[in-house]
Amino acid sequence: MLGKLKALEDKLSPGLRKIVLNIGWLFTERILYMVVSLIVGIYVVRYLGPEDFGKLSYSYSFFYLFFAVAKLGLNDIVVRDIVQQEKFTPKILGTAFVLKSFSSVISIFLIASSIWMVNNDVQIRWMTIIIALGLVFDGFEVIEFWFQSQVLSGPIATVKSVQIFLAAATRILLVWLKVPLVSFAWVFFVEFLIKGIGSIWVYLKYHQSFQKWKFRWSTAVELLQDSIPMLLSAVMISIYMKIDQVMLQNLVGSKEVGIYAAAVRFSEIWYFVPMAICASVFPSVLKAKARSKREYDLKTQQLYDVMAWISIAISLLMTVASQPLVNILLGKEYAEAGIILALHIWSGPFVFLSVARGRWLIAEKLTRFEFMATSLGVVANILLNFYLIPLYGGKGAAIATLISYAFACYLAGALFPPLFKNTWMLTKALFIPVRIKQNLLYFKRIRQVFS
User: Has the keyword Membrane been applied to this entry (predicted)?
Assistant: First the structure.
């Protein structure tokens, strides 16, 4: 067996070998997260019940509405600039760190002041603020950007694995001690802290120095010019990913939020897949763009096809398993979550393709269109939620999410001429199950690699 794996490894080019290893690290970390968070999450969900779990989910969803402000849309911009301008890495990292730290403080203030104005539940107010305080450590995420630019995800994956186990152990302990609900909000804060400390440790372990980091106004302006469209788009994405739970709380109540949030956990837990693949493949796609437009377009289409195949397979599997899964793992108290899950899971193909398209927009410097498309999706989501939630509760929110995701992540591209060709590529990807000739070609290449 080891001999076969070694022979397979020898057939891969150094670049492809590095990408495969990187994806392997990311998948290992995220699968670990998926398994641990699912097991512990079920334990917590059953302990809290729909009402209290709904309050905790609402607090996190409200926090998440502002999360993009702290991120500043810098993630892929910083990775791109390090790959393309490696000699300026200390200046890029130092500037990005200052920008993210400042935006995190602003985000904490916005979250605290907003929750105090829109919600009268003191418990929900304090849980939301506690979660938000974790953003103090979010500036150190720029370390992860450096590792991504090197296609070296192992160290950060290790840090996140430690974070996963410590957070899971803490949640189990809290349930065992039967502590008040607000204690669970502190776990989110601790997760930010662990990730920050761990990132610093691995960065120094790889003989990198913070002393070389420099802040430059000119670099800040350049980063913000590219990232502001991504920031605005990310804000819109945050809204239409979490506004459903906020609106459910305001229109129906905490119990409905708890049932809906329990279903969505099974659906959104898969969203790590496109993130892991794109984080590893993006530098390779950028290099292909520099070599040849034909190679660049081919790699982009292949990425879209992979995204579509994986997401459609997951959606089919989860649709069939949704009701038995919920009944067995969560109990009768959450029975309605099965129907919600069967509807919500079909947002996945559009999310997967949207993540990949986002990288293409960055490479083409067309990020303004991401904001336009996402804004239209947000408007559609809010209007649909206002109409469907009073009629169908959590099921209505799931339908609204599916329609708005399809519109923002795919259909809206048909409204903007610069995106016409890319939208056709997305269309081909969505129909990949019936593109027999292309599938046979992919299968032949896979067999050649493993034979």
Answer: yes
Residues 355-414 pLDDT 10s: 899 888 888 878 778 778 888 888 999 999 999 999 988 899 999 999 998 998 888 888
pTM of the complete model: 0.72
Structure tokens at 286: 């950028």
* DSSP labels, 86-104: GGGHHHHHHHHHHHHHHHH
Burial of 339 (0-12, 13-18, 19+ CB in 10 A): middle
Domain that holds residue 361: 2-450
pLDDT at 5: 41
Number of residues that this document lists for the chain: 451
H helix runs in 12-141, sequence order? 14-65, 67-71, 75-84, 89-118, 122-133
Q: Is the pLDDT of residue 32 over 50?
A: yes
Q: DSSP of 338-362, one letter per residue? A: HHHHHHHGGGHHHHHHHHHHHHHHH
Average pLDDT, the chain: 82
Q: Is the dihedral of CA 278, 284, 286, 291 positive or negative?
A: negative
Tell me how far apart the alpha carbons of residues 212 and 208 are, in angstroms, rounded to a whole number.
Answer: 9
Instruction: Report the first-to-last Cα separation within the chain, whole angstroms.
Output: 13
Give me the pLDDT at residue 8, please.
45
- Per the CB < 8 A criterion, the answer to whether 60 and 181 are in contact is no
Tokens for 9, please give them.
């490894």
Residues near 70 by beta carbon (within 8 Å), at least 6 away in sequence: 100, 103, 104, 106, 107, 135, 138
Residue 397 CA to residue 379 CA, distance in Å, equals 14
Q: How far apart are CA 168 and CA 328, in angstroms?
A: 21
- Domain total in the chain: 1
Contacts of 188 (CB under 8 A, 6+ apart): 60, 63, 130, 131, 134
Helices 2-11 and 436-450, axial angle in degrees (round to 10): 120
Q: What's the rounded Cα separation, in Å, for the pair 66 and 365?
A: 25
Q: Which amino acid is at 330?
A: L
**CB within 8 Å of 115: residues ≥ 6 apart:** 62, 124, 125, 128, 129
- CA nearest to 29, candidates 144, 147, 164: 164
Query: Which of the residue ranges 197-211, 223-237, 330-344, 367-381 would you say has the lowest mean pLDDT?
Result: 223-237
CA dihedral sign of residues 59, 62, 66, 68: positive
